Structure formats: structure tokens, C-alpha cells
Amino acid sequence: MTSPASVLGVVLATTAVGGSALLWFAPTWGRVRHGYEILTAATVALLAWGGLASLSSPVAALDDPALERLGDGARIALLVFAIATALAAVALAVKLPPLVSRVLGGIGTAAGVGSFVPLAMIRDGLGGAGGTVQGLVELLLGAALLGAIWVGMILGHWYLVERRLSNRYMVWIAWTNVAAIGAGLGSVLLSARNPAPCEGLPPGGPFEQCATMFAPILRIGAMTVYLGLGVLALLALIAFFNVKLAREGGRSIQASTGMFYLAVILAPAVEFAAKVRFF
Fold first, then answer.
1. Residue 208 confidence class, pLDDT cut points 50, 70, 90
2. With 0-12 CB in 10 A as exposed, 13-18 as middle and 19+ as buried, what is 204?
3. What gap in Å lies between CA 49 and CA 44, rounded to an integer?
4. What integer pLDDT is reported at residue 63 of this predicted model?
5. Cα separation of 107 and 113, whole Å?
6. Is residue 54 within 8 Å of residue 78, measured between CB atoms?
7. How far apart are CA 9 and CA 50, in angstroms?
8. What is the mean pLDDT of the chain?
9. CA atoms of 88 and 102, how far apart (whole Å)
10. How far lies 277's CA from each of 1, 32, 36, in Å?
């Protein structure tokens, strides 16, 4: 890994893909006002555009032309993902049949997941541990963690709009969040097999360039792994309270939403720690 922009792009892209999957294929579909889908789809599309912008420069700057072509594949898939998701939100806003937006959302989600393949394949050319297979698993696990927490925060806020909405959907996302913590744990542990930032680079140009872009603490041994595990412990505690508060319903839903506020701040730190070792 030679650029923090690559890390940011991967984290934004995985958040968008995970959020999209939970939006279009969750039990909330058709039981919550479509304003919730419009809002969530809009944020997912923006996250996808952000990931695309962050990945465009660093991936294209890699010296190996083969890696550059693979990066183009990832960018094209992310572009399709962002456009399809935005169109799905517009279809709902102009009151087209809900099936239209759901099909567009499904196509976008498939394109987003598809973008993970060329991203993971880049690791083969860089000699990353586990190659494409492990890279793909790491991306999927990261998407599960970030997507669940992002959707949970938006859904919790939606209860302020639909005050009579059953708490069953908040309970569902709270338990989904518990499962997502397990996914995050897998993501961090797998990252331990990858080299720390700048590790293995020859002295001189590439190493000096990389060293100036990353904080020294991130380049010390397994420090990123310890950081990820520590923050995950906090997220696990939050997930426990989320389940308890969501099951109580009523005003406790607002408290659960507050917990998701904390989680949505902490979860990216976990994935930044894991994905700083990705390429």
C-alpha cells in the first residue's frame, strides 16, 4: 500500500456495497415508507461516488500496466453501481412501480460486489497473502460490517419519522449488527497476514514516498491489527446494548440510534486499520 487514498476508496466502496445489499434485500422493504429507501439509496450512491473518486488516482498510478487495467475494471463496476443506485432512488421519488427501483438496486448491488473481484485481483500482482480469494473475502467481510452499521444508523433515525413503526425492524438490524461484528473480526484477523504499510519496499524513492503518507505508528509490526481488535471490542459492547434497547422499543429506540452514532464513527476505524494492509 503506497497511498492512503486507496484505503479511503476501499472503505467507502465496501460501505456502499454493504449498505446497498441490506437496503434492497432486507425485511424492511415494503414495510417502511419509501422515503427511507430514497434516503438510504442516496447515501449509498454518494458513498459509491466517493469510493470511485478515491480509487481512480491511486490505482491508476500503480506502475504495472496489468494492475492499471484491473483497476479500470473496478472503476467501471463502481460507476455502474453508483448510477444504478441513484436511478433506483429517483425511480422511487417519482413513484414508478417499486419493482423498478428494486431491480435497479439489485443490479447496482451486483455491480458493486463485482467491483470487489478486480480489486482483489490486484493483490496477485503485488504478492499479497492469500491472493485474490483472501482479498475478496476481506472486502466482503468489511462490507458486512460497515453496511450493517450504516443502515442501522439511518433506520434508527427513520423511527423519528414513523413513530408507530414496529420495533421488529430495529431488533432485526441490531442482531444484524451483532453478526457484523463477527465479520469485522474476520476482516481484521485476515489483515494480519498482509504486510504493514511500506513493508518490503526497497529503500529510496518508493519507501520514502510511502513513509511520508502513513503515520509511523501504522508501520510498526501488527499495530493496525491491535488497533482494529481494540475498537471492535468497543463495537461489541455497543452491539450488546443495541439489542437490549431495540427489544424494549418506545423511547429506547432513540437510545439505540445514539449507539449507532457511536458505532458509525468507530467502525470505519476498524476497516481503515484492516484495509491499510490490503494492497
1. very low
2. exposed
3. 9
4. 45
5. 10
6. no
7. 7
8. 84
9. 7
10. 7, 39, 35
